[in-house]
Amino acid sequence: MKIGIVTQVRVTSSRLPAKVLLTAAGRTFLEHHLERLRATGLPVVVATTTNFNDDVVLAVAKEADVPVFRGSEDDVLSRFAGAAREHALDAVVRVTSDCPLIDPAVVAAGVDRWRAEADPDLYLSNCLERSYPRGMDYEIFSAARLYDAEAKATLQADREHVTPYLHQNRSGEMRLLNLAWSGGGAQYRLTLDTPDDWKLLDALIEEHGGSDLNCAQLVQLLDAHPELAALNAHIEQKKLGE
């Protein structure tokens, strides 16, 4: 069974345009992100848009030796399905490119559990209920279920956000499993969505070697340095559909 990671990337984000191309320690956040994903040992595919603004994504991905699939800017569900088809994936790990410090071991453990369950109707994630810091999120599901969602999902939010049709079980046929974590840190933001998120991630990478730290170590660092966590503690996560 071929399981691959598909990460969605576009530079026309509203809160912090071209955020993945911002740099820390001389590398773009997208490069940091792709390096962490490649450390899982799984195939990685960048799913970006056909918008000419995203041409630059190809150059970054090529340098990282990661293939790119280009599809609809707004219908991200069809973009993911296209990436899965082009790379003959049997199952998909969905992540987003605004997670430059995502822990490869956390993702790999989720994949191991999904394989062990041996259930093509299983949707497995670590963020159905928040126990990890934001920025460690992944979702895993079979390509067959992704294609079913692509064919049947009609709500705009389902098309834009890829997985609501699955994790809200609109088909009535999915089994949902959340892998929780007891290490704490659910209140922290290690995601890149606003200028204040950028300040924190830049400080973690530039001043504390964050690109070499795993999830537990990052949580311990933020616990020990509340002044760092305070940099983006006030940010409210955008709601589905915003």
From TrEMBL:
Gene3D superfamilies: Spore Coat Polysaccharide Biosynthesis Protein SpsA, Chain A. Keywords: Transferase. GO terms for molecular function: transferase activity. InterPro entries: Cytidylyl_trans, Nucleotide-diphossugar_trans. It comes from Kribbella sandramycini. GO terms for cellular component: cytosol. This is Glycosyltransferase family protein.
